[in-house]
TrEMBL record:
It holds the Pfam family RSN1_TM. The keyword NADP does not apply. Its main location: membrane. It comes from Hibiscus trionum (Flower of an hour). Residues 370-642 form the CSC1/OSCA1-like 7TM region domain. Residues 7-176 form the CSC1/OSCA1-like N-terminal transmembrane domain. The chain crosses the membrane at residues 6-28, 101-123, 155-173, 372-396, 416-443, 464-483, 571-601, 623-641. Residues 197-359 form the CSC1/OSCA1-like cytosolic domain. This is CSC1-like protein At3g21620.
Length: 771
């Protein structure tokens, strides 16, 4: 069993690791040569100049101001100095609200920890149940509920604390939901005009034998939204063309590399082998080889562009429809357009930056099949991953290692090595197993067909959280304490499972403490060091960078990564709520994680990460739901644990807590969630009215002209996409109907045809065709 000294060794290792990362960061960040790695956001905004441009040669690469080294922690107060409204203007509402998740953790767990250490820890510590039990136990166990004898009246303390923690958590959640909802509505009301505010995505457009998709969309919206329809942009399947453009860009980078190499040494032409990874094959001139490749790809791009332009099958049954007002777009997006509820499906269009264009080419009818396939695949991924988790957890069991590998016993029994194995190795091993998981889950989400980057990240985050709940939380508890009795565990009744898991929770406190320190403390400190981006930037800068644009691409830091970061945060909410009543000693470790993470990620959001899209904090309902789930899980597991402690008089009173928590969630869902899924018509009308008063001559058609054009047609390489640009830069025009009857087009086209009022159109359609 791990003791407090083992935890102390693990804590010392992780604290020293975190301090080493912070010290390395403090030194590296002030070196002029690394300025673009640690402050790329300011370069992107054009508000920072490279220190390499001025000064003596040595000072261009090395900071010679030794006083700056003494202020190695000054980045912390600097990260906290920017007020939240300024942070929203600088980094967007998504980033500001993401940081509030860490603040939410502090708001919940700091008061809970104070209450737990004031009341519950003395109640647990002053018992001597473990000393008389004859079992092996640690000092941590004496601080937990395990030290209370069965049937003791002291369990009433834990019951009252469970109610107090639940009510406090719900109060903080409600307050935060209210604040974030108000921030979202204020942001939407005050932000600048964006194309997505006026645009609706229409999917599953039914085929028509007489008209093209573009003509059909125009006529449908002229009839059903005559006062508000403005223009539309049909969706093209340009996935193959996009792949060719990406491949050409990659080949161009290799060509630049070899050209730079040749320019540095003109006396020697660079050569390469054409075989696998350049290890074998014919030796050819590298510059000529990649030049020929680019010429071939340019011809393929031109051919594919012409094919998309002339082939009607390249047009998908979907379109972006723009309206004259936000009010008109909101009404269209939130209403049923047709008597057949499966056609003419409308939703608010994501902002252009948020679109994942590849999935717009997936036929709508295939989405259900794809999601079923992914659901089955995710089930097997989740539950078969339990096998490596079990192996990892065996590392925390010294007895199992000594039994399996007896020749290692003399080494393992060395105090420092034993503390290292129990206090550090299991957490880092589990972290390594989870490295590739986010990529797998994102591939699954893309296969499902979600059309926006924000929805892809939210779906991946949901799956990542569920995976961690099953494998990291439940898997660690079950395999770490009951794996030897797995046959007995499988064959017991369903009612016994909460009891088994509940009884196992106190015994796994040590593992989760080490996991928090490895992943939460050292992991967050490693985040700010940015060692991998630092190495990649300098390699690219030395070998590939030729122009200033190349340098900007080399320093691109990417985005915050909601799909991986938020589920990790939620795991700490789960651990904190579960162990708050059972083993409160975990709470200080979790509080340190939330406080450290808030400072680190605030610095990263201000100075490093780009904002790939803006969803106006649309993810907050998911955050709220997952904390509610963690709260209910903690209540059910506490019920299971107390039922094994013969606390018959207090256990039944816990049944009320999940019921009250579910009722609270339904209240918040009905009261606050509509602000995150629908755009209030009142807000839309107010925004439209103010805009018309300020800009009465606003030309919205010009504003929308290329907003929802596929980015491959906006390529800077004009030689490849001249045809496409000529074709798509023209605003979608209204054309005369090709139908034999005008019953669905009561208004004339811009290009001729008589204008009919709706009654006249109905009269015309009722006449015999031979009349």
């Amino acid at each position: 069993m791990a003791t407090l000294s083992d935890i102390g060794v693990a804590a010392a290792i992780n604290i020293l690791s975190a301090f080493a990362f912070f010290l390395a960061f403090a030194i590296l960040r002030i070196q002029p040569v690394n300025d673009r790695v640690y402050f790329p956001k300011w370069y992107t905004k054009g508000l920072r100049c490279s220190p390499l441009a001025n000064g003596a040669f040595a000072s261009k690469f090395l900071n010679l101001d030794f006083r700056s080294y003494a202020r190695f922690l000054n980045w912390m107060p600097a990260a906290l100095r920017m007020p939240e409204p300024e942070l929203i203007d600088h980094a967007g509402l998504d980033s500001a609200v993401y940081l509030r998740i860490y603040l939410l953790g502090l708001k919940i767990f700091v008061p809970i920890a104070l209450l737990a250490f004031t009341i519950m820890v003395p109640v647990n510590w002053t018992n001597n149940n473990l000393e008389h039990s004859g079992l092996t136990f640690s000092d941590i166990d004496k601080l937990s509920i395990s030290n209370i004898p069965n049937g003791s009246d002291r369990y009433w303390t834990h019951l009252v604390m469970a109610y107090a923690f639940t009510f406090w958590t719900c109060y903080v959640l409600k307050r935060e939901y209210e604040i974030v909802a108000a921030m979202r509505l204020h942001f939407l009301a005050s932000e600048q005009r964006r194309p997505d505010q006026f645009t609706v995505l229409v999917r599953n457009i039914p085929p028509d034998p007489d008209e093209s998709v573009s003509e059909l969309v125009e006529h449908f919206f002229l009839v059903n939204h005559p006062d508000h329809y403005l223009s539309h942009q049909v969706v093209y399947n340009a996935n193959k063309l996009s792949g060719l453009v990406k491949e050409k860009k990659k080949i161009k980078n290799w060509l630049d590399y070899y050209q730079n190499k040749y320019e540095r040494n003109p006396s020697k032409r660079p050569f390469l082998k054409t075989g696998f990874l350049g290890l074998w094959g014919d030796s050819v001139d590298a510059v000529d080889f990649y030049t020929a490749k680019i010429e071939r790809l340019s011809r393929d791009i031109s051919t594919e562009t012409e094919k998309i332009t002339n082939n009607p099958k390249s047009i998908m049954p979907a379109a972006f429809v723009s309206f004259k007002t936000r009010w008109g777009a909101a009404v269209c997006a939130q209403t049923q357009q047709c008597r057949n509820p499966t056609t003419w499906l409308t939703e608010c269009a994501p902002e252009p930056r948020d679109l994942y264009w590849e999935n717009l080419a997936i036929p709508f009818v295939f989405l259900t099949i794809r999601r079923l396939i992914v659901a089955v695949a995710f089930f097997f991924l989740t539950f078969f991953f339990m096998i490596p988790i079990a192996i990892v957890q065996s590392l925390a069991n010294i007895e199992s290692i000594e039994k399996t590998l007896p020749f290692l016993k003399p080494i393992i029994e060395v105090k420092f090595i034993k503390s290292f194995i129990q206090g550090f190795l299991p957490g880092i091993a589990l972290k390594i197993f989870l490295i590739f998981l986010p990529t797998i889950l994102m591939i699954m989400s893309k296969f499902e067909g979600f059309i926006s980057l924000s929805s892809l990240e939210r779906r991946s985050a949901s799956r990542y959280y569920f995976f961690q709940f099953i494998n990291v939380f439940l898997g660690s508890i079950i395999t770490g304490t009951a794996f030897q009795q797995l046959n007995h565990f499988i064959h017991q009744s369903t009612n016994e499972i909460p009891k088994t898991i509940g009884a196992s929770i106190p015994m796994k406190a040590t593992f989760f403490i080490t996991y928090i320190m490895v992943d939460g403390w050292a992991g967050v400190a490693a985040e700010i060091l940015r060692l991998k981006p630092l190495i990649i930037y300098h390699l690219k800068n030395f070998f590939l960078v030729k122009t200033e644009k190349d340098r900007e691409e080399a320093m691109d830091p990417g985005t915050l990564g909601f799909n991986t970061g938020e589920p990790q945060i939620q795991l700490y909410f789960l651990l904190g709520l579960v162990y708050a009543v059972v083993t409160p000693i975990l709470l200080p470790f979790i509080i340190v994680f939330f406080g450290l993470s808030y400072v680190v990620f605030r610095h990263q959001i201000i100075n490093v990460y780009n904002q790939e899209y803006e969803s106006a904090a649309a993810f907050w309902p998911d955050v709220h739901l997952r904390i509610i789930v963690a709260l209910i899980v903690s209540q059910l597991l506490l019920m299971g644990l107390l039922s094994t402690k013969e606390a018959a008089s207090s256990t039944p009173l816990l049944i009320t807590l999940p019921v009250l928590t579910i009722w609270f969630h339904r209240f918040c869902k009905e009261r606050y969630e509509p602000a995150f899924v629908r755009y209030p018509l009142q807000e839309a009308m107010m925004k439209d009215t103010l805009e018309r008063a300020r800009e009465p001559n606003l030309n919205l058609k010009g504003f929308f002209q290329n907003a929802y054009m596929h980015p491959v047609f906006k390529s800077v390489d004009e030689d490849d996409v001249d045809v496409a640009m000529e074709e798509w830069e023209v605003e979608p025009s209204l054309v005369a109907t090709k139908r034999t009857s005008k019953r669905s087009t009561p208004f004339s086209s811009k290009h001729g045809g008589s204008t009919l009022s709706l009654p006249e159109a109905n009269n015309e359609s009722s006449k015999p065709e031979n009349a």
